[in-house]
Amino acid sequence: MTTPAFEEHFQNLLEEHKKIIYKVSNLYCKNHDDREDLAQEIAIQLWRSFPSFDERCRFSTWMYRIALNVAISFYRRENTRTRYIFSDNERLLNAIDETASEPEHMQPLYQFIESLDALNRALVLLYLDGNSYLEIAEVLGISETNVATKLSRLKKRKEQKHVGLG
Amino acid sequence: MLDLDEMKQQWAEHDKKLEDSIRLNRQVLSTLNLKGARSALQRLTVGLALEALAWSAIVIPLGGFIYDHGGTLRFAVPGIAADLFAIGMLALTIRQIVAAQGIEYGQPVAAIQKQLEAMRVLRIRITQWALLAGAVVWAPFAIVVCKVLFRIDDYSQAWLWANVVFGLSLIPFTMWVSKRFADRMHNSPLLQRLMRDIAGQNLTAALAFLASLSQFTDEGQAI
Fold first, then answer.
1. pTM given for the model
2. Between chain A and chain B, how many beta carbons pairs sit less than 8 Å apart?
3. In whole angstroms, what separates CA B86 from the centre of its chain?
4. Which of A63, A163, B127, B193 is most buried (CB neighbours < 10 A)?
5. Which of A92, A95, A166 sits opposite B28 (nearest CB)?
6. Phi/psi zone of residue A137: left (φ > 0), alpha (ψ -120 to 50 degrees), beta?
7. pLDDT band at A113, cuts 50/70/90?
8. Is B160 exposed, middle or buried (0-12, 13-18, 19+ CB in 10 A)?
9. How many CB atoms are closer than 10 A to CB B150?
10. Which of A40-54, A79-93, B5-19 has the highest mean pLDDT?
11. CB B23 to CB A127 under 8 A?
């Protein structure tokens, strides 16, 4: 049974970490409607799982796990998705300034991320968000060494692309 | 073109701006929660529970049919065959419900994705086996249904073989239709998914994703 205080606590934590939902939705979906559907799907899963959240753990780690698990499944499900709210006025996350939230100079970065598979996309997002190797390992469930190896290879791959294009 | 570390710096600047430019719509959030919106996993579990209920509704009357016709082999045998099929399907559906209940999205990504994909593989294989076994069990089911609904007591060898042949011929026909038309079923996602399951496209994709997950968790694997 959830109380209003419990819901308020959840909403405050979500407010504090709203960027995670926004970024994950943007990285896994190209069009606006899909992003909104994914954002809502993540919010619902977070709310459903919140009673089992262990307060000793970092909320962001737990939130990344849920957001990425939902996003990867959503990304792979393609056509059999559920739409909850249709109106444009009823979006979960509203960008006040679209140019600030999706600036043009970020496009090459988004293009690079889009060229990756769903799992490596998660790895790069966690890295770009400034998480340590340990935190990335905890979210993804792989070892720190593996995180370091994969990131180093991704950097090399990026450099090779750079040289190739140059 | 920037390298990954420079991109990280650019991302951090973008991140700061995001804090001010996005707003969480609490009204939408409350509406979603209050409406009792179900997550994808909950929707799947509800679907499976309904499926289990449907199979139970077949298993129980078939049990009654076997009891009533226990002394007549020509009815008892088809009844048992049909009931075994229905019991098998019910057990497999319950197995999927148990697997779905064991999935906790707050666990690490690689582990949860493995569990989800293994569940998907199981579901696809059940669909394929249901088609194959269903084609064979079609004849016993037809005998039971004819007896219960139309009181037909007598069936000839020719009638029985005709039903077996009809059931078996459905397998290649369904596979051919699924392979040929699955991609055109954009307006019916559920039917499209079923057709792709039967055609084997979804199984190939699921197994490939499981392989990429293993590669991802294996240390020293190239990207």
1. 0.85
2. 194
3. 16
4. A63
5. A92
6. alpha
7. confident
8. middle
9. 8
10. A40-54
11. no
